[in-house]
Amino acid sequence: MTLTIEQKFCKVAETHPERTAIADGETTLTYGQTVKAADLVCQKLTQIGLKKNEPVVVLVSNIAADIASFLGVWKAYGVVVPIHHSAPKIARAALMARIKNRFVVKDKVEVVSKDPPPLRPLLEGAGTIIFTSGSTGDPKGVVLSSLKASQKLEMIQSMTNWGKGENALIGLQLTFSFGQWATWLTLLNGGCVHLRGRFDGGKFKSLLETGTIQRFPVVPTMLRHLLQLGGMPHFKGQIMAGGEPLPAALGRQILKAYPQAGLWDIYGLTETGTSDFFVLSHEYNLLAGTIGRSGTEVEWRLNPQSQELEIRSPWGMLGYLDMPETTNTALQDGWFKTGDLAAEEETEALRLIGREQDLIIRSGNKISPLEIEAVFLRHKEVETALVTGALDPGHGEVIHLAIVLREESQISSHDLKVWASEYLEQYKIPDKIHFVKQLPLGNTGKVDRKALRRSIELAIHIVS
């Protein structure tokens, strides 16, 4: 019988109650203390009437209490919906209106509604709902099974050989699947998770140099910043890259700067339960620039017409929250359409060759252009808008917004960004706003996002 994540955590805590589980730079919790904190959350939710499979919003800050909150909700048979505490009030309210949750956990359990949520058969056996950007512009709530999530961790464990008692430094947000699985895999192996709410290259480098970190899950953007601070010839841990493509050149720079470290590249999507393809550390030089080979029990195929990568495994999502038609379009006969175009190499590894969708991947965060456009089009002085990503050495991609203003408008890009911060998370705010007389059009007369990207990247190349 498969145990859930919280059940496995409690078994570790029974064996090692005094061992340090989580350190966030200010607060340190042992395994025993984490269980006690989780029990308090569980008891409060139970007392105020949480129903089985009911969604509970957890406002996360990447602190030790967040882990206890996840565990507490699960122990009370609820479904965790992580939302970052810094999300703008308007955006948070819109999400919660969709979730229809009664309870929010942040430091304490708060009742935000007396109306029970609707009966949702999709949430039977669910453990987590993770909101991720989609091609429609509206964030989609990916519903994941608690048992399948636990089983997927076992597969990732078998592929990565995560060691007993290994410690991890995690600056990845717990609102995303990458940060979550790396956290749980560390804890279920009896290690300590060093959680950090934001990436600080200098502080991260200092902690890595102590020799106490064995696993370092990162997005490539973090690696670019660390390279600027110099190499670490004595670091012997495992660098686990994911969240966005890891260019071969960057990977080889890392291996040169960290000659005793192992380097992994991991590809997966929230909808597939994360972590489906692996470039193992001992094969990095052979497979650099690819997403590697599929993990155990992961099936894949390429659409013969489009070359879109499709994935099927026992651990995929249950579906999108309250979006049955979108679910049926993306998931057919167990095959999930990733939106990524790929080609198979002679090594049997896959190489990504493009994206069918126009998602921007900025510092590992997947961002829908349509979501940003929809916000700016609300502004009374904006006539029309178009968003695209452009390659950037620091962030992988950055966000460019082209705007046609209404006649006689004098608003500045700074004022527009300040206004948009009320509706968008900070990482979705455009890095650059271009005021144009008209948007680029394609042959059919529709706005041409790719043409905008080409013109921006050409201008950047000319300037550089």
Q: Can you count the beta strands?
A: 26
Taking pLDDT < 50 over at least 5 consecutive residues as the criterion, the unreliable ranges are none
How many structural domains in the coordinates?
A: 2
- Output the CATH class name of the largest domain: Alpha Beta
Main-sheet strand order equals 11-12-13-14-15
Q: What's the structural blueprint in terms of helices and strands?
A:
Blueprint: H1 5-15, E1 20-23, E2 28-30, H2 31-47, E3 55-60, H3 64-75, E4 79-84, H4 89-99, E5 103-106, E6 108-111, E7 126-132, E8 140-145, H5 146-160, E9 168-170, H6 177-188, E10 193-195, H7 201-208, E11 215-218, H8 220-227, E12 238-241, H9 248-257, E13 262-267, E14 277-279, H10 284-287, E15 293-294, E16 299-302, E17 308-312, E18 319-320, H11 324-330, E19 331-332, E20 335-344, E21 350-355, E22 360-362, E23 365-367, H12 369-376, E24 382-392, E25 396-405, H13 413-420, E26 432-435, H14 449-463
Parallel strand pairs: 1-10, 3-4, 3-5, 9-10, 11-12, 12-13, 25-26
Antiparallel strand pairs: 1-2, 5-6, 7-8, 8-18, 13-14, 14-15, 16-17, 17-20, 19-20, 20-21, 22-23, 24-25
Task: Please characterize this protein's 3D structure.
The protein is of the alpha/beta class and 464 residues long. The protein has 2 domains: 5-353, 3-Layer(aba) Sandwich (Rossmann fold), CATH 3.40.50.12780; 360-463, ANL, C-terminal domain (GMP Synthetase, Chain A, domain 3), CATH 3.30.300.30. The chain has 14 helices and 26 strands. The strands form 7 sheets. Strands 11-12-13-14-15 form a 5-stranded mixed β-sheet, sandwiched between helices. Strands 16, 17, 19, 20 and 21 form a 5-stranded antiparallel β-sheet that branches. A 4-stranded mixed β-sheet has the order 2-1-10-9, sandwiched between helices. Helix 1 packs across helix 2 (31-47) and helix 2 crosses helix 3 (64-75). The longest helix is centred in the first third of the chain and has 17 residues, at 31-47. The protein is globular. 46% of the residues are buried.
